Fold these 3 entries.
Entry 1:
Amino acid sequence: MVPSNDKNSPGKSPSDDDRGVGTALREYAPYLTLGFQLAAAVALFLVIGIWLDGQLNTSPLFTLIGLFVGTTGGFIKFFRTVAGLQKKKSGK
């Protein structure tokens, strides 16, 4: 006889699967926003650089500076967040 994977099978409560998913989401949720934060930093500073170039007629100087600052700041934030999360995880 093959064991059943039914949630209502004996010895297994209906919420066992739900607890596993909830725990996994809580554990990985801080990592899910990292890509968005990096992209937002780059896009924000790039748009500011493009705007400044349009106002000052200095194209592509501030566009490149904005791209560099956004990328650098985004990666710094990314690595600090990952390092902090790893430290917090190993300190448990």
Entry 2:
Amino acid sequence: MFGYSWGPILIILLIVLILFGPRRLPELGDSIGKAIRSFKKAHEEPPDTIPPKEVTDTGAVGPAAQANVCPSCHKDLSGDFAFCPHCGYKLKA
């Protein structure tokens, strides 16, 4: 098992029994089992994703339509910035 014979495995189990005692071993096994189950559950579930924003095309191409888009990296800007938080482009003079 795992490339070890039964001798070293029994020695390791005996050391664990001495360190934790017979009363704490069931608690230790339970907590290890819960951790393994939570890791498996987190690995199997798909990650929570943010749904994409709805794109509404109004047909406007003036400065009002591009006020919230960086002219350099073309990413959306959600606030009033002097510099683009994505690429550092200077937005205001």
Entry 3:
Amino acid sequence: MNHRPRTPTASAAQTGVWAWALVGALCGAVWATVQFAPAVWLQRAVAAATDGRVVLHDSQGTLWHGSAQLGFTGGPGSSDAMRLPGRVQWDVRPDWDQLHLALRADCCTSDAQRMDLKPGLRSWRLHIQPGQSNWPADLLAGLGTPWNTVQLQGTLALKTQGLTLVSSVDRLQLEGSLSLDMPQISSSLSTLRPLGSYQLLLQGGEQPALDLRTLEGSLQLQGNGRWTAGHLRFTGEARAGAGNEAELSNLLNIMGRRDGARSVITLG
């Protein structure tokens, strides 16, 4: 007896067509969602990642190409807040295994700061390419204590020299270096202007180190810190230069714990 091979029925064929159409529609919807993801998604992600200390306001555009106002706060429950003038723009270009980012700030960058982010299931790697930018010192007041008390005035020159951040499970490692130059800084709490010029250097390694030194000035600052288990512990001191004790006395009282002629500064 001969058996004819079975052929799909019209209804089965039609079901297959609809199934493929549904798969195609779902893929298109996912692609459209990712392609046109609103900038507010990034706004929420930044706030969550920084515990509310870095805030994007009035986000416009998409996750890939957008802009917002950049602000800083002292975190949840803090009344301190400061916004940058102008807007910050970002461009994100996906590659097969990483994201290429370019950031520009109307007020503070002449060239885009470029970064490469390589995400993983339980880790990520962020490489910040060499660059330089200038930021208003009063922006730090938005971070809360002690910056809101000292109320610095002037310009902060930020220089990155191939800094890389590597996160694995609950550990964050830093490679490379970053420097923050503070030339001719003043404070609204002192009539002595300027107070001086300073440099803050972040050096990566097994235990990233933070060093503060005075380049010149009447207010002498020095200190160092270490990142241990994800927390910064910093110890430093502030002193008045010879002949400036009276003019700087009030500022020294506020900067830290007074110990004779010096003010002891501790963070963490």
